[in-house]
């Protein structure tokens, strides 16, 4: 690839964001033909990435980059290898079909332009995620997928179910994103590397760092939430509230595979450890079984496909978790096959819903005559999902079983889980391909017929590509599966695929067993659905309900906490502020070993003792004052004593400023207090007095110890030397303090003056408030009682 081609790669990744900006405008111009125009963008991106197929198949990698924040080591850099190339081709290729499909599905919708814009934003985020090299930019694109999927899932925002599903997806995947950010920060701190390509060049760097366990846990948090692994699986089926183009794009072919992509990308860095090969197969296997069981219960076409998507993601995670070469090959093959057949089947479900008015499988039947093209696309995609020849799904299943059967310890359990899960997915595939199209004709809300070309092009093309990928096995293995597998293993891998087995083997027997078991389960589908439904009703609670309880708990806690810390009382606010201040200065001193050495008692002159005595008497006066006004005046004694100390140490300007501030503070506070109708002094209980006294002592002791610790450090005179050297030559001033305030800190001083002026205006406003006589002052309890009444009662 030439440098110009690498620059084009950056443009290709960022192009969807530009398309998102102009999509509403083009939609308003071209109207029904806007989809054809907009689809040219992902089609061009797809064409560009096809140029990487041959180089990456030869083991080449590319790292185009654009400077972003170089001082922090953050660049807009990308890493192109077999893994990222295949994902980019899937995103842009299926994205092209989705844009066309959305043009037909939302034809005439007043917000179609906005929908296109959201789709392109998501497409760009996903392309940046799978090609990202810099860890920080990868994380930014990762979070962008969560935000844009929130917009797409909640597209029909007037429906409560859509809003709930969007918020749920954002909370779950966004929380996982924060976990991933923490993992990346630990990786950068432990290795000193911020580029994925640099990490992959030394794959053992994380395992040898001593932080492998926390990094592993945090990476799993990001991957499991994004790819809907149990117990975080519940958000994906709920996201079916989104329009079908969203389901076909985000929740089958792209976003939900982001977690699987992350696990595949991190496999050379985190894989092949006991923790990896235990946790991933366990959670992946559980997700596979939970997803297929819940899919059998459903009668909604999209929900059936959604739960099998959860199951398929679990299968991929289980296979990646084995770290077994042949099982990894099966994972790569199944990822490709799943993207093709599941994208097609989601589009088929949308066509059925769009053209019949329902997607309830119990209310559909006999559609093969009125929807022959849709039926053909559904049949081809379902055959691949069932794992039958001659489709890519069959090859993926054969390689998968070969990998799990020969992997060594745990092979039996992993293989049995895969067989059972695949058999139940066959049930769903058969139900979707057979029940709506065969049997007696059922009256539907709309007159059933095949959709327009924009609707049927997508499922037909994806179904045929699934067939072609199997027929041209050598091409598929050499240019797609081999390079991607090399990225997972960290070494060059040659893949040899066969459409049909050449002899009877364990994988073939397992495939026949899967099909036979699936046929038996399909024969008992209605009974299975009833049994599963009754069991789930008996269990009652589930992660989805738990999410609502979790959110309700947070809201309840927030309400209680807000009432506690925002009680409307100045005393509470001041206690919180100074309490946290005391903690902020004391905790580091005690926990970080920063306690200062106690200095020796200095020898003071008699006038210095006199100043200390004045300060002490002022403190006593504040404590024993009978009125607030007396306490304010006494408090000024402390400031005057400090001003005298400044004068003794040769800072007359600072001393004068202190005298002025203290005088003005006392005068202003005294004026304000005389205008307010307050009790002579506080009537706090002894317990409250002890608490506030302890907080005050904590702040005072903490500040004193902090200042002592600072002054005991070696003095760094660089700043003082700078001001001494340049105050005269640059600012033309002899008084260094004045030069610092007026010139070097001119804007800061201007801001401080603005604050003082604003404060003075507020004080003036308070002083000018006319208070009512005491006998006219309304009873406070009566006012509170009046405000607590409903508006109608007032």
From TrEMBL:
Q: How does it sit in the membrane?
A: Multi-pass membrane protein
Query: Residues in domain NADH-Ubiquinone oxidoreductase (complex I) chain 5 N-terminal?
Result: 71-116
Q: Which sequence ranges are marked TM in the entry?
A: 6-27, 34-56, 76-101, 113-130, 136-155, 167-191, 211-236, 248-264, 276-296, 303-324, 330-352, 373-392, 412-434, 454-475, 503-523, 573-592, 604-624, 631-650, 656-678, 690-710, 749-767
Q: State where it is primarily located.
A: membrane
Which segments constitute the MrpA C-terminal/MbhD domain? 614-676
Question: Residue ranges of the MrpA C-terminal/MbhE domain?
Answer: 694-774
Per UniProt, subcellular location reads as: Cell membrane; Membrane
- Indicate the segments forming the NADH:quinone oxidoreductase/Mrp antiporter transmembrane domain, all copies: 133-417
Instruction: Note down the stretches annotated as region Disordered.
Output: 774-794
**Pfam family for this entry, one:** MbhE
Cite the entry's keywords alphabetically: Antiport, Cell membrane, Ion transport, Membrane, Transmembrane, Transmembrane helix, Transport
Give the matching InterPro entries.
CPA3_Na-H_Antiporter_A (IPR050616), MrpA_C/MbhD (IPR025383), MrpA_C/MbhE (IPR046806), ND/Mrp_TM (IPR001750), Proton_antipo_N (IPR001516)
Q: Which NCBIfam families match?
A: PRK12647.1 (NF009287)
Q: What is this protein called?
A: Monovalent cation/H+ antiporter subunit A
- What lineage does the source organism belong to? Bacteria, Pseudomonadati, Pseudomonadota, Alphaproteobacteria, Hyphomicrobiales
């Amino acid at each position: 690839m030439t440098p110009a081609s690498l620059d084009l790669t950056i443009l290709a990744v960022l192009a969807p964001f530009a398309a998102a900006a102009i999509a509403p405008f083009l939609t308003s111009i071209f109207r029904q033909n806007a989809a054809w125009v907009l689809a040219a963008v992902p089609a061009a991106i797809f064409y560009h990435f096809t140029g990487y197929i041959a180089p990456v198949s030869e083991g080449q990698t590319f790292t185009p980059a654009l400077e972003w924040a170089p001082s922090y080591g953050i660049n807009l850099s990308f890493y192109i290898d077999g893994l990222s190339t295949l994902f980019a081709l899937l995103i842009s290729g299926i994205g092209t079909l989705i844009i066309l499909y959305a043009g037909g599905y939302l034809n005439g919708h007043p917000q179609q332009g906005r929908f296109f814009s959201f789709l392109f934003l998501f497409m760009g985020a996903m392309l940046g995620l799978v090609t990202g090299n810099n860890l920080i930019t990868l994380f930014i694109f990762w979070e962008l997928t969560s935000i844009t999927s929130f917009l797409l899932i909640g597209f029909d925002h007037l429906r409560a179910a859509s809003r709930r599903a969007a918020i749920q997806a954002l909370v779950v995947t966004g929380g996982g994103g924060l976990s991933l950010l923490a993992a990346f920060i630990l990786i950068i701190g432990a290795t000193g590397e911020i580029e994925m390509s640099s990490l992959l060049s030394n794959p053992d760097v994380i395992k040898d760092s001593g932080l492998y366990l926390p990094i592993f846990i945090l990476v799993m948090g990001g991957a499991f939430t994004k790819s809907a692994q149990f117990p975080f699986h519940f958000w994906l089926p709920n996201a079916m509230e989104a329009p079908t183009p969203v389901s076909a794009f985000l929740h089958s072919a792209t976003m939900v595979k982001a977690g699987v992509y992350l696990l595949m990308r991190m496999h050379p860095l985190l894989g092949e450890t006991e923790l990896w090969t235990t946790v991933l197969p366990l959670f992946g296997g559980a997700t596979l079984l939970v997803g297929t069981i819940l899919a059998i219960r459903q009668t909604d076409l999209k929900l059936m496909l959604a739960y099998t998507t959860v199951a398929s993601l679990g299968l991929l995670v289980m296979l990646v978790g084995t770290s077994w070469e042949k099982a990894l090959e099966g994972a790569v093959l199944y990822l490709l096959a799943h993207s093709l057949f599941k994208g097609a089947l989601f589009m088929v479900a949308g066509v059925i819903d769009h053209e019949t008015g329902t997607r309830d499988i119990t209310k559909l039947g006999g559609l093969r005559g009125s929807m022959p093209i849709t039926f053909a696309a559904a049949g081809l995609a379902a055959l691949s999902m069932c794992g039958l020849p001659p489709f890519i799904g069959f090859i993926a299943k054969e390689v998968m079983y070969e990998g799990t059967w020969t992997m060594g310890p745990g092979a039996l359990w992993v293989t049995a889980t895969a067989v059972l899960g695949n058999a139940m997915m066959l049930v769903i595939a058969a139900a979707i391909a057979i029940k709506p199209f065969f049997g007696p004709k059922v009256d539907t809300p709309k007159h059933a017929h095949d959709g327009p070309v924009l609707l049927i092009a997508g499922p037909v093309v994806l179904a045929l590509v699934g067939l072609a990928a199997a027929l041209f096995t050598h091409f598929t293995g050499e240019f797609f599966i081999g390079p991607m597998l090399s990225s997972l293993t960290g070494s060059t891998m040659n893949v040899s695929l066969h459409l049909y087995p050449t002899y009877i083997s364990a994988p073939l027997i397992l495939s026949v067993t899967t099909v036979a078991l699936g046929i038996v389960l399909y024969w008992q589908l209605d009974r299975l659905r009833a049994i599963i439904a009754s069991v789930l009703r008996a269990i009652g609670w589930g992660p989805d309900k738990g999410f609502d309880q979790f959110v309700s708990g947070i809201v309840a806690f927030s309400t209680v906490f807000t009432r506690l810390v925002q009680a409307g009382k100045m005393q509470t606010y001041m206690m919180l502020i100074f309490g946290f201040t005391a903690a902020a200065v004391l905790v580091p001193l005690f926990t970080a070993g920063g306690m200062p050495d106690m200095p020796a008692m200095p020898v003071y002159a008699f006038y210095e003792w006199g100043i200390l005595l004045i300060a002490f008497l002022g403190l006593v006066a504040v404590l024993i004052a009978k009125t607030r006004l007396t306490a304010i005046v006494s408090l000024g004694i402390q400031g005057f004593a400090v001003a005298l100390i400044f004068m003794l140490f040769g800072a007359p300007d600072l001393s004068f400023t202190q005298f002025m501030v203290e005088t003005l503070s006392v005068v202003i506070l005294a004026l304000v207090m005389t205008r307010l109708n307050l009790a002579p002094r506080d009537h706090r209980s002894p317990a409250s007095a002890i608490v506030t006294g302890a907080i005050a002592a904590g702040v005072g002791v903490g500040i004193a110890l902090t200042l002592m610790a600072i002054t005991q450090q070696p003095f760094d005179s660089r700043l003082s030397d700078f001001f001494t050297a340049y105050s005269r030559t640059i600012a033309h001033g002899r008084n260094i303090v004045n030069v610092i305030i007026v010139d070097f800190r001119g804007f800061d001083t201007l801001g401080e003056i603005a604050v003082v002026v604003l404060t003075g205006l507020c004080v003036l406003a308070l002083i000018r408030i006319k208070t009512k006589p005491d006998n006219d002052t309304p009873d406070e309890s009566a006012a509170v009682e009046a405000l607590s009444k409903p508006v109608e009662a007032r």
